[in-house]
Amino acid sequence: MHPIVKPALRRGWRDLSTVQFGVAPAHALVLGPMDTATSSFLTLLDGTRGLPLLREEARRMGLPEGHVDKLMDELSRAGLLDDSTGGGPAADSLRGRSDLMDRLRADLASLSLLSPEPAGAIAKVAARRAMRVRVQGAGRVGAVVASVLAGAGVGRVDVLDGGHVEPWDVAPGGLPAESIGERRDTTARRIVRQSAPGRPPRKPSEPEDEAGLSLLIIAPRDGLDAYAPAPAAADDLLASGIPHLYAGVIEGTGVVGPLVLPGTTACAGCLFRQRADRDPTWPRMLAQWRSGHARPAPACDLALSTSVAGLAAGHALAFLDGATSPCAGARWEASVPGFDWRSRPVWPHPSCPCGAGAPVKGDQATTATEPHATMAG
Questions:
Q1: pLDDT at 365
Q2: Fewest Cβ atoms nearer than 10 Å: which of 15, 119, 231, 248?
Q3: How far apart are CA 364 and CA 274, in angstroms?
Q4: 119 to each of 71, 93, 125, 187, how far by Cα in Å?
Q5: Structural domains of the chain sorted by starting position, each given as residue range(s) with its CATH number in brackets
Q6: pTM, full prediction
Q7: Contact yes or no for 174/144 (Cβ under 8 A)
């Protein structure tokens, strides 16, 4: 192990014996009391020395026997310690690619704040490289989502859509103006390749269907299909157990979620049944909206679509990294001009055939709160 104090957190001294790591309260921690010799020793934790050399340096500085190991334990428990050589063979492979590491360095620093164990961040980035995600839709939301996921290190990002790029599809980070008139899917895949910091070689036997998908993101250009997705369109996904996330913009309102974990969290069918229970006219209204005159240029505010794409990509990456997603069983909505994101629960419906709402014998409802970092002494 080559310990390094996580460089993502700025360091400052609250007084002569107390050091604070981090600025913003979400991840800031306070450590103390700390003597002058120990504070000087912290500068040696830069990832260039192994533990034997660090123990030797500590002896030269007059620190007592066992002090280094005790300090390492304390820093590790606080989630402040990283390992510049850990993470396993896949992480070592990443370190051997300076082009990849330079592109992903900022993402690694951010992930280190969410990975208390040493080398956890690089292990997660290495795991992303082996994942496959499909984005269904290459409009202002879908194309940006795809480019963000590829740029964040997801190994393979597929994009599906039809038709040709229209002027109103163009968005920064998505389809460029020079692609107007080209095939949407072809252009979106090119943007994904350009965004990726490097890709693992594609195997000839790699499947083109849903097999092997880690996640499907449904980001239709028609925002109605994200706001009120047709249950039948997800039947195959539910049957094959593929997690899928909805995202889109409808008439100045952005939606992200729900993230559907088949058989576990609410699906499009649950969403439809809940709305129909509250409003008996909902099925009739949906039928009219879906059969009405096509709108060639939907109301899709550029700032809102970019916000939706960023939030969808963030929740997708959190899910791929193994975190509990707040989009599972919920949908986030915001409208212009306020951009005030609010979470609305989407409960499993007992009559939905997806099975998420089926009662389980002996189950009891529980309420849990997400853990969060606080200032610690």
A1: 38
A2: 15
A3: 22
A4: 18, 14, 10, 36
A5: 3-85 (3.90.930.60), 129-256+279-326 (3.40.50.720)
A6: 0.88
A7: yes
Instruction: Tell me the DSSP string of 135-193.
Output: EE--STTHHHHHHHHHHTT-SEEEEE--SB--GGG--TTSS-GGGTTSBHHHHHHHHHH
Identity (one letter) of the amino acid at 54? L
Q: Note whether 185 and 103 are within 8 A (CB).
A: no
DSSP state of 232: G
Strand ranges in 237-329 using DSSP code E only, listed in sequence order: 244-250, 253-260
Yes or no: say if 302 and 170 are a contact pair by the CB < 8 Å rule: no
Cα 136 to Cα 226: distance, rounded to the nearest angstrom: 11
Q: Which tens digit of pLDDT belongs to each residue from 331-373?
A: 999 999 999 999 999 999 999 999 897 765 444 433 333 323 3
Beta bridge partners of 106: none
3 preceded by a cis bond (ω within 30 of 0):
no
Residue type, 163: G
The amino acid that residue 20 corresponds to is Q
